[in-house]
Design a protein that fits this description.
Blueprint: H1 6-15, H2 22-30, H3 32-51, H4 60-71, H5 85-102, H6 107-124, H7 128-150, H8 159-162, H9 169-199, H10 202-210, H11 213-229, H12 232-252, H13 258-261, H14 265-271, H15 279-297
Helix pairs in contact: 1-3, 5-9, 6-7, 6-9, 7-9, 7-10, 7-11, 7-12, 9-10, 9-15, 11-12, 11-15, 12-14
């Protein structure tokens, strides 16, 4: 008679006879020797399990929580040292260079063409005052379009990976906006200076710059705020409305007196203090840009998809 081998004994002692084949179970039922060996194996397994419980891996919290607690700053300890001035400048330069690649490629040549046309128109105008009628609305339009393009949602990575970066998402967004706005404002300033020097001097350059500075900043701020608050379509609508208001204010206020200004004179008196270069327009622009930055900094918000 062939008895159960060692593997069958261990299987039956550990899991019970149900794990054996039918022939092996039949033999076990009629063989006292094999039944005794299976019972002994089962008792040995029970003793070993009681002496050494089954090992279980620790939970994730048990592994990570002590490390997180050790990294928390203790009250009274000195804060971690920040970046040096050189490292900060290098980080800022790298951030701006990276954001320059994310600006729409056609924006730079189109802006350059627009400012070249405005420079030609301002130079051909018989006076700086008449040149401002072209330069003011034109520069406002170019600057507003640039700010709107900088906030276009496809230019932004998703907020989830952005929030894992060392640099806050609002700093990434502000660096791109500052790059586009700064370039456009510098170009408009260069056009104003060149045309002003041709017409007469620094005073004429100041007149030309005043024709677009306030309206351009206010229009850009409205476009940026609308894009972040609702959608790029809302930002475009607000920017277009601001440009139209500034153009009407410039056209209505171009005359020397009420008769020369015509029926648009009362309109210029109403919207002129807002859509012109002055404390009101500059403060409104700063407030709108700060509000837009606050919205971008919120973790529950991202730039809308369109």
């Amino acid at each position: 008679m062939t008895h159960l081998d060692e593997e069958q004994i261990r299987l039956a002692g550990g899991r019970g006879p149900g794990g054996l084949a039918a022939a092996a179970r039949g033999h076990l039922d009629g063989c006292p020797e094999c039944a005794a060996r299976v019972a002994g194996t089962a008792r040995l397994g029970a003793v070993l399990r009681a002496a050494e419980p089954e090992a279980r891996p620790p939970s994730f919290d048990a592994l990570i929580a002590p490390a997180l607690a050790a990294e928390r700053p203790v009250r009274g300890t000195a804060p971690a040292p920040g970046l040096s001035a050189r490292a900060s400048l290098r980080l800022a330069a790298g951030l701006v260079a990276r954001q320059a690649r994310m600006v729409p490629r056609l924006l730079w040549p189109l802006s350059a063409v627009g400012f070249a046309v405005l420079l030609a128109a301002a130079l051909k105008a018989p006076s700086a005052g008449l040149g401002a009628l072209f330069l003011g609305p034109g520069a406002t339009l170019v600057v507003t379009v640039g700010a709107l393009a900088a906030c276009e949602p496809r230019r932004d990575p998703r907020m989830e990976p952005m929030r894992t970066m060392r640099v806050p998402p609002v700093a990434v967004w502000l660096s791109r906006l500052a790059l586009v706005l700064g370039a456009d404002l510098a170009a408009a300033g260069a056009v104003s200076l060149a045309a002003g020097l041709v017409h007469g001097g620094p005073g004429d350059a100041a007149v030309l710059a005043a024709s677009w500075l306030g309206p351009a900043l206010l229009g850009s701020a409205l476009a940026v705020f609308g894009s972040v608050w609702r959608s790029p379509a809302v930002g475009a609508a607000l920017g277009a409305s601001s440009w139209l208001a500034s153009a009407l204010a410039a056209a209505a206020g171009a005359g020397a007196g009420p008769a020369a200004r015509g029926p648009l004179g009362p309109l210029a008196d109403t919207i002129g203090p807002v859509w012109s270069t002055g404390p009101v327009s500059l403060l409104l622009a700063a407030a709108l840009l700060a509000w837009a930055a606050r919205l971008v900094a919120r973790e529950d918000r991202a730039l809308p998809e369109g």
